[in-house]
Amino acid sequence: MTLMRRLERSMLLVAIVILAGCATSDRRNPKDPLEPLNRKVFAFNDELDTHVLRPIATGYVNVTPLPARVGTSNFFGNLEDVWIGVNNLLQGKPGDAASDAGRFLVNSTVGILGFFDVASELGIEKHDEDFGQTLGRWGVGNGPYLVLPFFGPRTLRDTGGLIVDSYASPLGAIQDIPVRNSVRGLKVVNDRANLLGAETTLTEAALDKYSFVRDFYLKHRQSQILDGKRPKDDDDDDSMLAPLFQRVDGEGYFATRRLTSVLAKADFDRHDAVLDQRKQNDPTQ
Amino acid sequence: MFKCSLTFFRRCALLLMAVSLPVFAQEAPDALIKRVSNEVLDIVKNDKAIQAGDTKRIQALVEAKVLPNFDFMRMTGLAMGREWRNATADQKTELAKEFQTLLVRSYSNALTQYKNQTLDYKPLRMQPTDTDVTVHTEVRQPGAKPIGIDYDLEKTGDAWKVYDVEIAGVSLVTNYRDTFAQEIKASGIDGLIKSLRDKNQQLAK
């Protein structure tokens, strides 16, 4: 284990110990029982980002021409494709896994070590998988929402996924330690630079940045696990329904029936709301 | 001379037809999304003031081109969830107004970042009788995974109106639901209106 790796591990460990040791406080949002602590960590990460990571990423964008940044993103993306393929295999999608392997072969050779994403040009689509998604696919639930120091939003399940992902990272195979650490650093900065525009929108659009990011993260993960196929009727009453799901576990069939009827009622309520507002709309039209 | 004016007349007639065509033909939802996106992005790409970060200008553009195709009452209702029924008519109007300002401002500013991306429109399969459809598009950018942007549209009368936009599988509208519920719990619907208004004023500076 090298310094960077050990540091990364111990940061994760500290984060988990702190979070695990903290008793759940008030139960306002069932998705987020650790909200008070999470908010503190979120504020810490935000400060760290404002004062350290964002300035570095901005500087990086200013001194690096776009083609170089694209090449860098492609290079790291190509290495990731291997692990993405493994996860697709673990999720029972051999077709996707084969296409990921194909991407890696094409981009590593014709795409000169992955700096050019030739595979995408050829129409071999890039996928988006990680071990957290694989666990989700296997039926592991989210667990409580966590904001990890340095790493940002995760759930308990995705924290487990993150640990496995970090062991699987091919960058760990680089023997020369200073080179490995520089490469890791470059990846962090390059990833952050790719998000520079997005975060402005986030700050502007959110009434409360913390809950906006949390809800976005949870929905986005759900969508990733389902590979973008959305259940048309997941219409986000899940915060309200979460306590029901806990009850369902024990009671089996009848509880499920009850849940279905509650879901149907929620749906009615929604349609009512829509109808209400159509009525409301009428005089203005 | 006569010949020349005839050509001129023909040109005028053609032009008139081209302009009025979208009004006569009932535009399919995917065609609508494609037309509006292309129009707006063409302007954004070629307007030097917008590229230099003139936010007023891009907001005006979004208000003129994009807004008429959105149903903000419905969007606000979806963002509010069940609390929408407890709002008075005045509160609803006020909420929709502030929510619209917030979304227009933050997302038109996001458009100024549009430089190296390309938009990809997925084919839409729909029945002629459908009144609620989703149009799938994808933003492709060099060196990054494509980001899906889906538009939910509903047919009201003869026109299709967007009532939800999903980015990377996350609804921009319902993502506000927990925050809104939180605000309402703390300080009521008027409290939510006030926070929206404060946020908008703070952004306007």
Molecular structure report:
- The complex is a heterodimer of chains A (285) and B (205).
- Chain A contains 12 helices and 2 strands; from the N terminus they run ααααααββαααααα.
- Chain A is mostly helical and 285 residues long.
- The C terminus of chain A is likely disordered.
- By secondary structure, chain B is of the alpha+beta class.
- Helices cover 57% and strands 17% of the residues of chain B.
- Chain B is built from 7 helices and 5 strands.
- Chain B has a 5-stranded antiparallel sheet with strand order 1-2-3-4-5.
- In chain B, α2 packs antiparallel against α4 and α5 packs across α6.
- Chain B is globular, with a radius of gyration of 20 Å.
- Classes of the chains: A mainly alpha (285), B alpha+beta (205).
- The interface between A and B is large, with 48 and 46 residues.
Which regions of chain B are unreliable across 5 or more consecutive residues at pLDDT < 50? Answer: none
Secondary-structure class of chain A: mainly alpha
Beta-strand content estimate of chain B: 15-25%
Described by the principal axes of the CA atoms, the overall outline of chain A is globular
Return the string of H and E elements of chain B: HHHHHHEEEEEH
Order of adjacent strands in the largest pleated sheet of chain B = 1-2-3-4-5
**Arrangement of strands in the largest sheet of chain A:** 1-2
Q: How many angstroms separate the termini of chain B?
A: 58 Å
Average pLDDT figure of chain A: 80
Give a brief description.
The complex is a heterodimer of chains A (285) and B (205). With 285 residues, chain A is mostly helical.
Protein topology:
The complex is a heterodimer of chains A (285) and B (205).
Chain A (H helix, E strand, L loop, with lengths): L2 H19 L13 H29 L2 H25 L3 H16 L8 H4 L9 H7 L7 E4 L3 E4 H13 L8 H18 L1 H10 L3 H17 L12 H14 L1 H29 L4
Antiparallel strand pairs in A: 1-2
Helix pairs in contact in A: 2-8, 3-4, 6-7, 6-10, 11-12
Chain B lengths: L1 H23 L4 H18 L1 H4 L3 H11 L6 H9 L8 H23 L6 E4 L10 E9 L6 E10 L2 E9 L2 E2 L5 H28 L1
Antiparallel strand pairs in B: 1-2, 2-3, 3-4, 4-5
Helix pairs in contact in B: 2-4, 4-6, 5-6, 6-7
